[in-house]
Design brief:
Blueprint lengths: L1 H27 L1 E6 L4 E4 L2 E4 L8 E3 L2 E5 H7 L3 E5 L4 E6 L2 E6 L4 E4 L2 E4 L5 E3 L2 E5 H7 L3 E5 L4 E6 L2 H15 L3 H7 L4 E5 L5 H13 L2 E4 L1 E2 L15 H6 L8 E2 L10 E7 L7 H9 L6 E7 L6 H8 L6 E2 L3 E3 L5 H10 L4
Parallel strand pairs: 15-16, 15-19, 19-20, 20-21, 20-22
Antiparallel strand pairs: 1-2, 1-14, 2-3, 4-5, 5-12, 6-7, 7-8, 8-9, 9-10, 11-12, 13-14, 17-18
The protein binds flavin mononucleotide.
Flavin mononucleotide binds next to helix 6 and helix 7.
């Protein structure tokens, strides 16, 4: 009788152990795939919304920013936001990360580190560069520039995945590096003072599988600068033939792009003068250039011809005006109609 009981207990133990081992394996092997400009992530191939607000991962000035809460919670961690100090504290297992909005100093287990790009808030969501979290929490990062996807691998998957993706991880750990190295040959450049053109530019980049670059004014435009019913800065620049507002930063590897979309808002029927600064800073000969704009109602009109005169040697295609709320369907139909590779 004792023997039977012993055998039964042993069997029960092994059953429980097997279930527990499976549970641990399941928990520790995880792949999360995010796509630039997509509000859906794949967690172990299951589709999940990043959040209820439709937050999307973005590349801003060649920096990849992710909505951290969704990712950290998926890997079993927690996120605490302190609005007073504008700090974020992330915890996963024994690892603790502290970040401050707009600060390039971050702390991993109380050790200070310098970030490539500071955390930022977009549309009320905390977004931060992927590398720091990935390294801090032991995740592998694989960036696919053609698909514009970021794959995070946690747990024992890291062993097998990293074997196949070591090259990608070491060569292109972050999208900012990949942007400089990828094989894509299409770039979407845009200037946007109030984000209308930005929205269209992001849809074009998604439809064309293109890299994206925001023209950032060295001196940002305030709302007073844009108040076109007054003698505002924007009006003064538009009325000054020699105005060339300074740009902060440059496009890395402009040479590798053979197709460049150029987007801007219409200001008094024309492209803002900062677009002229941009056009005069690069050599467009041999490139296909496609202008696009947003406006209250004005067509793209002569704004495109005036930009074309600054791109000698380019194959200049007809441009297109979009309204601020252009749909993804409209934008991608236009991109498809261009017949790009
Ligand atoms: C200084 C200024 C001048 C503008 N001039 C025009 C115009 O001539 N025609 C028009 O339809 N919209 C005009 N607009 C509206 C913008 O073109 C429109 O809001 C655009 O979508 C803004 O794009 P953004 O958010 O990317 O900056 C003007 C806006 C500003 C600030």
């Amino acid at each position: 009788m004792k023997k039977i009981l012993l055998v039964l207990l042993t069997l029960i133990f092994f059953c429980i152990a097997a279930v527990a081992v499976n549970a641990v394996d399941f928990d520790s092997d995880m792949t999360i795939q995010l796509k630039i400009n997509s509000p859906v992530m794949l967690v172990n191939n299951e589709e999940k919304s990043i959040d209820e607000n439709g937050t999307v991962p973005v590349i801003l000035n060649s920096r990849t920013l992710l909505p951290v809460r969704a990712v950290v919670e998926e890997i079993g961690g927690s996120v605490e936001w302190n609005a007073d100090t504008r700090t974020v504290e992330l915890q996963s297992g024994d690892n603790n990360i502290k970040l401050e909005i707009d600060s390039t100093t971050a702390y991993l287990n109380n050790e200070p580190h310098t970030l490539d790009a500071p955390p930022t808030i977009i549309g009320g969501r905390t977004m931060l560069p992927i590398r720091f979290i990935a390294e801090g929490f032991g995740l592998e990062v694989n960036w696919d520039s053609a698909e514009q996807t970021i794959t995070l691998v946690k747990g024992s998957d890291v062993q097998s995945e990293s074997a196949s993706s070591t090259e990608a991880v070491t060569e292109a750990t972050t999208a900012e590096e990949a942007t400089a190295q990828n094989d894509g040959n299409i770039l979407v450049v845009y200037f946007s003072a109030t984000n209308n053109t930005k929205g269209v530019a992001e849809k074009i980049a998604e439809a064309a599988g293109a890299d994206i670059y925001a023209i950032t004014p060295a001196v940002p435009y305030t709302s007073a600068d844009l108040d076109y019913n007054t003698e505002c800065r924007a009006n003064k620049e538009q009325n000054d033939d020699s105005a060339r507002p300074e740009i902060s930063g440059t496009v890395e590897n402009m040479d590798k792009y053979d197709t460049v979309f150029i987007g801007y808002p219409i200001w008094w029927g024309q492209a803002p003068k900062i677009m002229y600064t941009f056009m005069e800073s690069y050599d467009f000969s041999g490139k296909t250039v496609i202008p696009f704009c947003t406006s209250g109602s004005s067509p793209i009109g002569s704004s495109a011809e005036n930009m074309q005169s600054l791109a000698s040697g380019a194959d200049w295609l007809d441009g297109r005006r979009f309204s601020a709320g252009a749909s993804s369907d409209d934008v991608s139909a236009w991109v498809r109609s261009l017949g790009l590779d």
